[in-house]
Structures are given as structure tokens and as C-alpha cells.
């Protein structure tokens, strides 16, 4: 290999591209005096520039290159809400199986303020840099900048050294505050060819050039030698990017952030075969499966055999065996909060401790089901918070679940969740596609979006008083994913705390005689019932009373207010909400008018709403339904969704009118 590297002799003259001149330490009075962002006056700060540069360093003793990533960042703070920018947290990966952990070193960091009309620099002290191991895969370095206030500028330069040259850390051009200028440059020996994968909605300018490179190193005899080579120089840059904002109805903003990633495709030296590194999903899964912390764990069974035999004794049905084993693992094991598809301590230690990470619990489940005669496979996925697995690499996935084959159906299971039932997964796992891994390491792509409609129903029977107050009874039923969401959100909450939340959520109603059924793990729906009193959902004016037809269940305002939207609209999973409301007239009043019946829709199975009202003696009966049938909707459809919600809110607030006789 060393002989091959010496073949990288400079053959062409270097031509340098002229990038925008941005340097650390060049803070001006004018920059410090600036009070607001020139375009977005609501911005709490801005990135004046963000630069990164990736180069290779030759390690003679190991006869290979390693990657060095240098980062420079200059940030202006405008408002007190932006003071959190002074705590900069940088994550880096340490979970490699065959490589050493990445190393991060802060080289420069300082705060700049305007004091007496002059620029004052305050350096970050060494004791203001904190390193923390998040889990077995990630570490963070947090830099706490001193004396930061509205008007301050902070600067930092740091380096990340990594033995991983197959993929580089994604460079994020776009951030949570506006970015004036961002640049990512790579200087890589021409024998190493990479594929650049960009994402986001804003264009990235790319310039390519070449330059000569040389590095000194010490050979095996202690002598200094020089390695000369030609480097391909690629510069990616953008300017004036708006802040990426965490809007409502977004799965993960990082999926749409303007960014770029690098993946090694091949290494080619003269007179030698091409070494192909282009990773496929199948190849990645094979690598994962062969690892002792994945496939090796699936092969272990001695630790649970005796209990499994007792558990399924006398049960012939594959479906019943699956349910029995699934519930057993859920009840025995407690998730320790760590994601990952590899095991940490191994399934045997996790079994004894009755606690483990995602890999330990769900690989244990796969193994036990197979041993029980239920054909099962692990499924590698990326959770919603982790983002979309856009191309195959070790960090594409961060979770593993189980797929059981029962009576010709594939049933997905996640034993880390105490409330989940067969086929009903936590919503955090419903993210694009996963890879089902077979016993030989082969794999297939499966969808992680649910096609089934989740149904919830709401019923109210109430009486309106002459002063406009309302009293009645309510019953709510949450099925399938809606039931699981309810259990996950409120399962650990005390009754008093939950009722306080519920009264606030429903705009100040008073609740009594609250009862809930099936709030623990169950295939049956969660059912809530309670008595309520409200003074906010009907109003007496003169000789008339005006009543909101859906009372406290109506949508109060349109959540889609922006004129335009760049990110897709995420509805989570298909759902149907049905409402039946019976309103009794107060004594001495007659029905004057009811809302008109309407049926509105965006079309294309995105969202729809219908409502109908009719008088029945001394009562008014309201029936309504809302449906969303698509998980993710392209932003081009946003105007239709915005108009739909505007119309729906309007129709939900057409009043029932009672008139005094």
C-alpha cells in the first residue's frame, strides 16, 4: 500500500478557487452594533459564517489515511432568547466496531463584545469545555461561552479526527437561525472517489479544482519521508439561508435541512484493481448480521429455554404462542432508554438484569419466537427523530423491531414498549422504510407506514342552561394507534395531574366522575367517561343562546397560517375522528337555527370533514367526522390544506341558535 501511495505524484499545477473571504478573529464594531437580522427581524441570532474542511492525514505505521475535519463557526446573538446559543453542543460518533472512536479537540473559542466603543475578546476557559458520553455510540462536547449577551458574537474552531473514511459527518448548511454564508471544502487524494449526497430545498454551489499535496511521515526506520500526491478540491457553498423552523405537522426537520454527506465509492491506484466501497443496503445488512452483537445474539437460546417451554406448554396455535411470548418479554424486560440495533451487554446479561437496550430486548424476542415455532425476523429501522435512512451506512439505522409470520400475515412487534400490542407499533417507529433481515443475512425493504385507519370516537349528551352554561356527560374511545398514543402519553401520570391537563386542554371545562377503562396494555380501546360543566361553549345574548356545535371538541384555530411552506405536511398515520353530540334545549326556548350540513375535502385522500345537524324534539343532534388518509403530503399541496382548515374551523363554529319563546 505504501508503494502505491508514493505513486500519487503531482502531475498538474494547482489552481485555487477563490471562496468568499471569511476568517475568525476579524470581528468589527459594525458587526457588534448590529441589532437585528437584516431579513428576519424575529431571528434570535444568525450564523455569520460556517465553514468546514475535510482533509486526509497519512498514518505511516498503519499504512493508511485518516480523515481530519476542521470546523469554523461565527455566530451573532441578537436577542435574550438566543442566549442558549452560548452553549454549543457538538456530537461525535464513538460506536465503531473496528475503528477507534472519533476525537474532537477545540482549538479556539471566544466571545466578543462592544465595550466603550471597542471590541473586547474573552476566551473560553478550558474548564468551560465539557465532554460527556451519551451512550455507547455517541459522545458530546459542550462549549460554554462566557459573557454572552444580546449583541455578542461568538467564534469557535475545532477539529474532529476520524478513522472512518467511508462516510463523512453530514455538513449542515442550514441551521435553526439564519445563515449568511456556509462552506464545506474537501481536499482528497484523487485515488479516492466519493459520492456527494445533498438534501434540502436550497441550491448548493459546487466548484471543483485540483492541487498538489504532500505530507511528511516517519518510516519504519525512523527516517522522515515525504508523500506527494494530487488532491481533488471540491467546494460547496451557500448564502443567505433562512432558519429551519420546527413547524407543526413535521416529522423531522432534519430530513429537509439543506445539507451534504460524502460516501466513499472506490479506491483506484495505477496498475491495480479497483477496490469498490459503494455500499448497498443488502451489503450493509450482511455486515450487521454477521456481527457477534447482532446475528451472534440471535443464535443464543440456553438462557431462556426452560422458561419458554413452560410458557408455551399446551399451546398449539402459532398466533397464541406469538401473543404469549410477546407479552412475556414485555413484562419481564424493561427498556433502559438506549436505542441501537446492536446489543450492549448481550442478551444473556440483559435477561438476567431484566433490562436492556432496544437491540437486546427485540433480538431476544426474535430468538424466542423462532424457538417457539413462530418464524420471526429482525427489522432494522430509523426512528422519526433519527431521520430518514437516505443511503446505506452504519448510522442509517438506530433501532430494531421484530416481524413475526403468523397465518400468512406479517405482524410487527416492539417489546421495549410496555403498552404495544401485536401489529400496533409506537409512532416513533413509523418512519418511511425498514430492512427485514433473514436468517442468512439477506434482506428486503418493508414499509413502516401503516395503511390501516385508526378510529376514535367522541360522544356528548348535554343540557344548556338559560345563562349559557352547559352540563353533560362525555364518552371518548381511542382505538389501535390512538389508544397506544394515549397509554404512552398518560400511562405514568397521576389521575389528578391528568385531569388538570384535560381541563386545560379542553379550554377550562370542569370534570367530575372521571372513569377510564383499558388504560393498561390491551387490544381493546381506551375508553374515557366523565361529567363536565362549561361556561365557555355557549353564550346567552338577549333572548337568544348561541352554542358551539362541537362544544369543547372543536378545532379552535387553523394550525396552518404561513403563506407558503417548504417542508411536507406530516399527519402521522391515517385516522378517523367521529363525533356524536346531543344538545338539549333549555326550558322556555325553541330551536331557531342549526349549522348547515357540509362535506369538505382537499381531495387525493389527504383530509376531509363533514358535519350535519338536525332538530329532534327538544334536542339538537350533531354528527361530524374528520379523516386524514395520507401520512406525508408534498408541500405543493399545502395551499389546499391551509384552505381546507380555514373552511373547517369556520364550519365548526357556525352556531346552534336557541330563541326564548
Give the topology:
Layout: H1 2-5, H2 29-33, E1 45-59, E2 64-77, E3 87-93, E4 103-115, E5 118-123, E6 129-133, E7 138-144, E8 153-162, E9 171-172, E10 179-189, E11 192-199, E12 205-218, E13 224-241, E14 259-267, E15 275-276, H3 281-290, H4 295-298, H5 305-312, H6 318-332, E16 334-335, H7 347-353, E17 355-356, H8 358-371, E18 376-381, E19 399-406, E20 409-413, E21 433-437, E22 443-447, E23 454-464, E24 470-478, H9 480-490, H10 495-505, E25 510-517, E26 526-534, E27 538-541, E28 544-547, E29 569-570, E30 575-584, E31 589-593, E32 598-601, E33 607-616, E34 619-628, E35 632-633, H11 638-652, E36 656-660
Parallel strand pairs: 1-10, 16-17, 23-30
Antiparallel strand pairs: 1-2, 2-8, 3-7, 4-5, 4-8, 6-7, 9-14, 10-13, 11-14, 12-13, 14-15, 18-19, 18-21, 19-20, 21-22, 23-24, 24-26, 25-26, 27-28, 28-36, 29-35, 30-34, 31-36, 32-33, 33-34
Helix pairs in contact: 6-8
Label the structural class: alpha+beta
- Let me know the number of strands: 36
The CATH topology annotation of the largest domain reads as Immunoglobulin-like
**Overall average residue pLDDT:** 93
The percent range for strand residues is 35-45%
| Largest sheet geometry | 8 strands, mixed
Which geometry do the CA atoms define?
globular
Residue windows where pLDDT falls under 50 for at least 5 positions = 1-20
Distance between the termini: 98 Å
Q: Biggest sheet: strands side by side, in what order?
A: 5-4-8-2-1-10-13-12
Proportion in helices: 10-25%
- Gyration radius from CA atoms, angstroms: 30 Å
CATH architecture verdict of the largest domain: Sandwich
Counting H and I runs of at least 4 residues, what is the number of helices? 11
